[in-house]
Design goal:
1 helix; Pectate Lyase C-like
Length: 165
């Protein structure tokens, strides 16, 4: 019986050592935090620093994230529906399949971000910076891209709705 108990302790310790440390959704915001699958709908998180944070499948619908720093964050499949990300830093973030439907993204910085299959339906992206962003299969239907800098470095003209012209 002693051998079985000792083996069980060793096995339990080995399993615990290989598991990532998860933060609770109520933890204080900080760079590198793990808020995956947490819900923050209708919150005021303006100017928050979540650089490098794990935000996969988190929800920030109708949330104020203006001037927030999400640079290098992993926010795959997150939801920012009708959120305010005016002036937010999202450079180098992994935003694949993220939903920005009707979001305010004026002057948001997406340089080098991975935006493949992201949805920007009806988003306001005036003056946003998409330099070197990966945009394959992204949906910009009815998005206002006026004065945005496109992934290839060209500036979108006036009346660039749904397409950089």
């Amino acid at each position: 019986m002693k051998l079985s108990f000792g083996f069980a302790l060793v096995l339990l310790a080995a399993l615990a050592a290989g598991q990532p440390a998860y933060a609770a959704c109520s933890d204080t915001p900080a760079p590198g935090l793990n808020w995956g699958r947490c819900y923050f709908d209708e919150q005021n998180l303006s100017s928050i620093d979540l650089s490098g944070a794990h935000l996969r499948e988190a929800r920030f619908n109708r949330t104020d994230l203006s001037q927030a720093n999400l640079s290098g964050a992993d926010a795959r499949r997150a939801k920012f529906v009708s959120a305010d990300l005016t002036g937010a830093q999202l450079d180098g973030a992994d935003l694949r399949e993220t939903d920005f439907t009707r979001a305010k993204l004026d002057h948001a910085q997406f340089a080098g971000a991975d935006l493949r299959r992201a949805r920007f339906f009806g988003a306001n992206m005036r003056g946003a910076n998409l330099t070197d962003a990966r945009l394959e299969l992204s949906d910009f239907l009815k998005a206002d891209l006026t004065d945005a800098v496109w992934s290839d470095g060209r500036r979108c003209g006036p009346q660039s709705i749904g397409l950089c012209r």
